[in-house]
Design brief:
The complex is a heterotrimer of chains A (310), B (300) and C (467). Chain A has 310 residues and is an all-alpha fold. Chain A is built from 15 helices and no strands. Chain A folds into 2 domains: 49 residues, no CATH class; 224 residues, MetI-like fold (Orthogonal Bundle), CATH 1.10.3720.10. The N terminus of chain C is likely disordered. The chains are: A mainly alpha (310), B mainly alpha (300), C alpha/beta (467). Chains B and C meet through helix 3, helix 9 and helix 12 of B and helix 1, helix 3 and helix 12 of C.
Amino acid sequence: MAGSVSIRHAASPRGWEAERRHAFLFGLAPSLLILGAITLVPAAALLLISLTPLNLLDPAGTFRFDDPLVNYRQLLDDPRFIGSLWVQVRLSLSSVTLQLALGLAIALLLNANSRVLAAIRSVFLIPMVLPPIVVALIWKILYTPDVSPLHRALEQIGLPLRSLIANPDTALWAISIAETWQWFPFTMLMVLAALQMIPDEPLEAARIDGANRLQLFRYIVLPYIRPVLVVCALFRLIDSFKAFPLIYVLTNGGPGTVTEVTNFYGFIQAFNFSYWGYASAIAVVMLVAVLAISWSISRFKGSDGNERHD
Amino acid sequence: MNATTDTLGLPPRGSAAEHDVPALRRPGARPLAWLHRHGRVALAVVLLLVLMFPFLWLVQIAFRPAEGAFDDSLLFTPTLEAFRALLEGNFARSFANSLLVSSLSTVLSLAIGVPAAYALTRWRFRARGRVALWILITRMAPPIAFTIPFFLAYRWIGLLDTVWGLALVYLTFNLAVVIWLMQGFFEAVPAALEEAAWIDGCGVWSAFWRVTLPLAAPGVAATAVLCFIFSWNDFFYALILTRTQAVTAPVAIVNFLQYEGWEWTKIAAGGTLVMLPVVAFTLLVRKYLVRGLTAGGVKD
Amino acid sequence: MTTAIESDDSAAAPVLSADQAATAPDLGRRRVLRAGAALGAGALLAAPAFAQGAKKYAGVVLNVSAFSAPYQKLLRQWLPEFEAQTGIKVNFDTPSFPVYNQRVDLELSTKGSGFDVVNVTFIYSSRWIQSGWLTPLDDFIKDPGRTTADFDINDFLPGARAPETGRDGKLYGVPWTAEVTISASSRFDLVKAAGLAYPDTTDDLVRTLKAVNRKERVAGFVTDNHYGWTFPPYLHAFGGDVFRKAPDDLYPTLDTPEAIAAADYFARLLREFGPDGAVSYTPDQAVQALKAGRSNFSTLGQIYLSQVGDPASSKAAQTAAWGLVPKGPAGRFPGTAVHGYGIPVGSKNKDAAWQFIVWATSKTITRRAVAAGYGSPSRRSDIDADVFRKRQVVNGYDIAKLCTDSIELSGKQGHMKYRTVSVYPQVDQQLNKAIELIVSGQQSAAGAMKQAQAAAIAELKRAGVAV
């Protein structure tokens, strides 16, 4: 078998190149086509719908294009929408910062040779892989004063705590904490992996020179893991836009609208009263934001000198 | 990269102290030495208990009798009452739906995405960067952006409230995950091995099947597990696109947030059941999970 | 080639085997049947006879959905009887009120076949009927082949049938409840100890609450967070209203001085006298708080407040008292609501769905419910029945009379017209948010109500109403 084909290869390297190219196209095409069908087409449809005042009370009548920008104009005038953007920013910033801090700290702690620590590392994965609705239930129990062990314990030692999710000042923080608990393993994992790749020599050299633990961290470890932290932060940032089950179960956007993020507001508009034109406009705005941040991720990793992006 | 996730090469805690002064000779040294030697582990264990407490609390509620769900006593006779009550409703069916949809989605994503990832790895064509960006966006896009058009389309085609419909929608994020992760795993396979196979006369895809895939098999497994977990955990799409036939477990639990002071033991039991497959998978495949998750994020 | 997945000793707990999943429902069903029989044992009633005999619908699966309420809870226990007689398998889904409305509104808007029987929620009835999303039931009712004579549609209160009737005069839902807001005190002994009587006016209420709040760690006042329902009695009592003149003039009037005064008063009840976290209390949580004696006063539907007098489940049964909603400067305006069972226009099992409705609202079942303590019947015969009257007299208070008085007031004053406006649900949500904001101290009454007014106008415009 070797003979004929290798002669073929030797005889026309360009033929082999073409054959390779076709083979790759064959492997890539189905997925590109399907991805196109399930992402580009719906996105285009979304854009289209956002230009109409589509409302399912009267679908035929409201599917009209006489005033394409009506939804976007209303969005600008809508204080609830602007408020939701603000809430989203606050939630994302606080949550991502806490996740990074906690994940980093735990990664540093667990980064040593020990079977116990290895087992603990595995157990710490649990919050991240739990179904988000289960996480929401766990924290619903913890935040409901009547049934929460935390509230009851605090009450017994004489420090009664009022309901965190019913208080507008603390509701967003409560959600932030729940989200941090859920996602710190992500940072932990990525930092752990990066810590393993730090070469030994600089560390040995510094230790011989008498550097203490803190200096080791600040001058050697941190520069190495900084890119990982940035990538982590960007990933978590985008994921934080999708926060839904926690809000749905814990506060339903309230009290008032203090935990109503943009995603949730879109959901309410679309699926409570079927204002699909308006909700589509909200979704388009979110998509544009996601696009911008994703683009900056790819730009950042490209500028890292990585050979992936040629 | 080792298969085990450990050591940085930092010496264990307190070793410097141990070298300097024999521990026992200093006053009060024994507990201090113990702390130095085991401090890290002790702190980790404490942290573990604190951080896992919320999770464990939910699980233990599931085993309590319904009336005593929030009794203060930590000791109680565990009962399977809540689980039994749970299965009398439609929960078992929603659990089966979850299994079905997640498996289907995983198989579909792998079947379509693995060849694509391979092609993207080995083939350097000009638009690669843009394709990568597109894949990233689809994974990152908020579900609300897709649910509206999908809802309308499914209503028209008749895929609302069906297992296939959900599995198809899950492709929007799973396909991206597969392509993204498998690229990392395929890159770790030296191209030289494939080239050797090509020289021996294999076509591109038969070389892939015989050489690359077996070497990347752990990666495929890790990716499959991740796809399964992501599909299993989805809430938003299932909430909107299912009614009664294809309702999945996470949505079914929300149905318990009802009346009569919320049936907490049933909710806890439901939550425990819903998380079991996912936690089980994670623990089984944890070594590869680490590589799977971090290979995608860090190496890029 | 080694397998990719490593096995591990710390393997997962087993997922339930198919056997276990199959037998569990049967065990449960037998137990429930026994419980159901015990409940109906008092009156040895014959099971409702069906027009065409049993098993005509064998193999049909019905998807029934209604929001979680006491009546549904009772139905769920008796469901196996219905299934045994007709061969229909019923998937009975009862989510919470807001979740139910959202899901069913979405499903109905697509004219889908996901549900066969739905609860026609009061505030949505106009929206759903006028959009043509429900099936007219007159043909079913008139057909003796599908409806037995003793179903007697005219036994249902005319006032209860009215909201279920469309502009075309056809009936789209069979009412299962005629709900009325009344007031109650779970710890009336504390009031008496303070030397006060049952409060009649809004001023009385505040005075009484000040006297008993936090005595014996009992919060003064509680209500559920569907403020679009619990607030209007106070809104009207202070002289305000939701629309200028429903159903003709739909200009919202949420920021009038009367409305602001009412919002301020109501929010104060919750803020000063409410339990911790009151703003997140669902109806069930509110009822639990009352039954456990953790909160004292409340204005809620009698479907909930009558339960406080149930000695089997309520610790406060001995110390409870009931009254009408407080009278304000402009009068007394108890809220009334009607919910019914209807058939979506897209259902594929309309005949079987109708059989379910006939059963669920039949005289036998409603009488059984009333005997079991259900407090909001919609049938005249049940309201007049001895068993209902006797059950509803607790501690010397005649709850049934309070309800009929309230219904009469509502009929005379016509103050519930705002609620059956088809765009009211949007305004309902604005009221929810506004009161939430005031109770949680994020905004003043004036600020929140003005915001609600602006948002309501925007919503109405988006819904195509000319304001």
